[in-house]
Design brief:
single chain, alpha+beta, Deoxyribonuclease I, Chain A, 6-stranded mixed beta sheet, 20 strands, 19% helix
């Protein structure tokens, strides 16, 4: 019997922490308004800053407001801040549909199992799968390449989804940036300088994950030629959606809100699957949700990304 799990990925800016040091989760509810009728089974949160302190109070507040908004009895876990508290993730899930067998916080013996979940669907003929939440370095492309290399330890095996703010675009139709108009910070952190003095998008880490984009076949190769390496072998749900009929505009929609950053936008929040789950995407289920209202009132500097997978 085929089962489905739905996933939501959201980088909640600063974890909802206010200037006074408290927390405000109205905007977290706002971000999930587009999926109120079809709430995800599993929610991956980046930037759960401070959610682990004071008895996990902020985590429980976030879980409770989303449970109320989406009318699902979520429970949650806080992960390990790879580069400090700002990179702490959180995992929420509806225990009526999926269950947790393992969660890798700081107690995990192996680093590749930190922020890594082993889960199964509830009921007869339970299907097992894994979830990895990652948040790559925002500034340094060489460190992002190193972080990509570390995913080799989890790319094989059972159906596995890797989701998070990976701070890196990929080669292909994902990139719509005029770097001459972008800010200096954007050029320093997300672009590479060419010998002629112009800039191009840094796609090295994601191409190592996925392989180079072939513009003729409109799919990935097995190699990241710029790095002279074979690709690790992940598959992007955005690209699988495109191949299954989702429009270019929807499949490759930027995942960041910068009021629109001058020069364009980038897809840097990714949902990736391994070979064991490559055929799992439910056609038409992948969406990047553009928030309503004026940019100054957006709930975060990132957008909610959702998709459903068959098991």
């Amino acid at each position: 019997m085929t089962k489905e799990v739905s996933i939501g990925l959201f980088n909640y800016e600063n974890g909802g922490r206010t200037a006074s040091g408290g927390y405000e989760f109205t905007q977290l509810q706002q971000a999930f308004t587009p999926v109120e009728a079809e709430a995800p089974d599993i929610i991956l949160i980046n930037e759960a800053k401070g959610w682990k302190t004071d008895g996990h109070t902020a985590l429980h507040m976030a879980v409770n407001v989303l449970s109320e908004k989406l009318r699902r009895p979520y429970v949650g876990e806080v992960g390990y801040g790879i580069r400090g508290d700002a990179t702490t993730p959180a995992l929420m899930y509806d225990p009526r549909t999926v269950r947790l067998d393992f969660w890798g916080d700081e107690s995990a013996a192996n680093e590749d199992k930190r922020n890594f979940a082993k889960m199964h669907t509830l009921g007869k003929n339970a299907a097992k799968f894994c979830i990895s939440i990652q948040h790559w370095h925002p500034d340094d492309g060489s460190l992002r390449i190193s972080e990509a290399h570390q995913t080799k330890a989890i790319v094989s095996g059972p159906p596995t989804l890797l989701g998070g703010d990976l701070n890196n675009a990929a080669s292909g139709p994902h990139v719509d940036m005029n770097w001459s108009l972008a800010s200096d910070r954007m050029r320093m952190t997300k672009a590479m300088l060419r010998p002629d003095g112009t800039y191009t998008t840094d796609t090295s880490a994601m191409d190592l994950m996925l392989g180079d984009w072939d513009p003729v076949k409109k799919r990935r190769t097995k190699y990241a030629r710029a790095l002279s390496r074979q690709a690790i072998g992940w598959h992007a749900l955005a690209e699988l959606a495109y191949q299954s009929g989702t429009s270019t505009e929807e499949a490759f929609k930027p995942t960041v809100n910068r009021g629109s950053e001058q020069g364009g936008g980038l897809l840097i929040d990714w949902l990736l699957v391994n070979n064991a789950w490559k055929e799992g995407l439910v056609p038409g289920s992948y969406h990047v949700h553009t928030p309503s209202g004026k940019p100054g009132n957006y709930p975060s500097n990132h957008r909610l990304v959702t998709a459903s997978l068959k098991l």
